[in-house]
Structure formats: C-alpha cells, structure tokens
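Q: My labmate handed me this sequence with no annotations at all. I'd like to see what the chain might look like in three dimensions before we decide whether it's worth expressing. Could you predict it?
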Amino acid sequence: MKKTKGLLLALLCVLGLSACGSKEAISENEQQVLNNATMIATQYVVPTLTYFTDGTIDKSQLDIYTNDALGIVVESAFQFPANGYAFRTAVDNFVSGAEEIGGITSVGDVTKAEINGTDVIVDIQIFGGTRNAEVEVILANDIVTPTLKSASLNPQYSMGEKMKKAALNTVIGMGTVFIMLIIIAFIISLFTTIPKLLSKKKAPTETEKAIDSAVAQIEANEVTEAASDDSELIAVIAAAIAAYEGSTTTDGFVVRSIKKAKR
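A: Here is what I predict for the chain of 263 residues:
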C-alpha cells in the first residue's frame, strides 16, 4: 500500500514538473520585441489617442490627410510608426469608447503582452468615469519598425449587463424573425387573392355602355340590310324561274336558299 502511494506521488510530481515546463521560454530577441512594443503602446500610442478624447486635438483635423499622408504625419508628430487607416480607425474607436465609459480618467498597467505570429498584442487597463475598459494595441512584430496596425478601446461590462444585452439581442432577433414570417405569410396569401380580384369583371362606365349600344345598333342594321338584299334577290330568282316554266305566278314553288355555283 505504501509503495502504491509512493508511486502515485512520484507520478504527480513528474506531471506537475512537466506542466510547469510546458510553457515555452521566449528568446532574448522576442523579449526585446515585447519590451519595445510595450513601451511604444504605453508611452506613445495610448497617450496620443487619449488627446483626441479629452479635446486636446480635434479629430476633424485628420480629414485633410489621406491615409498615406496621415501615416507620415503620425510618425513625425507623435514619434511612432503607424498605418494611416489604422490610426484613423483607432481615433474613431477611442472617441466613441471614451464617451461610453464616461471619459478616460487614468491609464493603468499592462495586463498582457504577447507575440502572435506577425503581431505583438499589448493590453492596457483603462479607468473611466462610469466604467473601466481595456485597450488592445496591435503592433507589427518588428523590432526596427513596430508599426501600429490597430488599437481599440473595449469597455468592460459586468455579468449582469452582459446577460441583459444578450437577452435584448435575443428578443430583437426573434422579433425580427417573427415579423419577417408574418410578412411572408401575407405575401403568400396574396397569391390566392390577386387572381380572384383580376377575374372579376370591371363594371362598364357610361361611355363604354354608349359605345356598346352603338356597336349593337350598327350590327343590327347590317343584319337587316343583308336580309332585305336576300329577299329582293329571292323574288327576282323566283320570277325568272316562273317565266322559264311558262307560269305567270310563283305560287307553285318556294325558293328556300341561294347558293353560289362553283365554276
């Protein structure tokens, strides 16, 4: 029994040592990259972006520069290399984020600094008037020119606030789905209603009634004239037949139809 306990303890010690040693040690060059990126993020990037949130610099002044020109201006004026578009986006994010946390009151410590492939990520604690936030600064993994790639001010919410926001998003999403289903059902119902409406005859107007009456009268006159012409033709043919037969009257026969002879 004692031997078994001893083996288990030894196994736990080995696993503990292996777990402790599983974290890869960074090289001296990587450590220098991290130190340089942390210094730029804390001493240059965050203070510069804060100037746009407290009114020291009006962000509308950036509108006169193109993205390429803005990168040059930032490097010469604020002493750190930056992508012009990334810096412009970071300023907009900081201004809106600062309003949400009630303004930036102070800058805290670095909470994380790590190398992720071609990027160096530095997280810094920010204290605000109504809530705290965290700044995520991403720089290029380059010890010579660690160019700013992005920076965002992310407000921190309590668990209750997160749950409330999640519930609100769920209600909005479900409400949108139900509204769309109702609209689709209404459109489908029109597929049976529209043909019925189209099949109903439109009541004729007074003008249309007058036109129809005139057309009917013209047709009736044409039929009467055709019948009158046929009667005259029948009488002539009957008289011709009577003369041929040597009779003076047409009482002995009746002409019932007239057909044109085929020649």
